[in-house]
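Morning - protoporphyrin IX containing FE inputs below, output right after.
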Amino acid sequence: MKLRLTKIAIFLAALVPLARLGWKAVHGGLGANPIEFITHSTGDWTLILVLATLSITPLRRLTRQYWLIGVRRMVGLFAFFYGTLHFLTFIWLDKFFDVHEMLKDIAKRPFITVGFSAFVLMIPLALTSTTASIRRLGGQNWQRLHRLIYLTGILGVVHYLWLVKADRRKPLEYGAVLAILLLYRLVAWGLERRREPASISESRNAAEITKG
Ligand code: HEM
């Protein structure tokens, strides 16, 4: 019951940024440069939700609220959803589906190359997010593949750092959150390795995933 209600609350909350964009679009609130506004908003929410996905494991372990694993998939899929909107804003509203222009940008502007790589890495994660995929790949392989989310987070922060011209405070704040989450994982992994061989701790973690 708690999980169901939390899932409904997260689902509704995750749609708020999209609803806000829709509301602003209808009421002329997107400012002088609507494409820029949408790009910034969807980019921000992609990164926030990637970081939120990465926070769930530490949060559930620190608070001993183990049921939280059940919401991780949904939060991750919303990160992909906003990433897709962000990408669509770029290729549709910014480049008008001009593939040549788009490829030129990806190749020539390093921050776009990095953002594009971060997005591409999210695709296999979204495609293998189903319980059937976890079974097909096996918990351990699935877990290894899904560690790519860390790389998406790192590339997302670098993408943001490289695109800002002056004030680097916001990307650095995201970077600090990511660094704490990575550090937590490294320390937890080190402690687990000390306590039990890697294969046992990996299969225990894998068993936990299939519960979600
Ligand atoms: C498909 C690949 C992507 C492309 C083509 C792309 C492109 C862009 C562009 C053109 C901007 C605005 C730059 C400016 O105003 O000067 C931007 C901003 C941003 N992008 Fe991306 N991006 C991509 C993927 C991602 C991903 C995967 C993330 C997160 C993990 C991300 C996070 C952000 C953030 C946080 C911003 C800045 C938002 C703000 O200014 O508040 N982007 N992106």
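Note: Residues 128 and 134 are 7 Å apart (CA to CA).

O.
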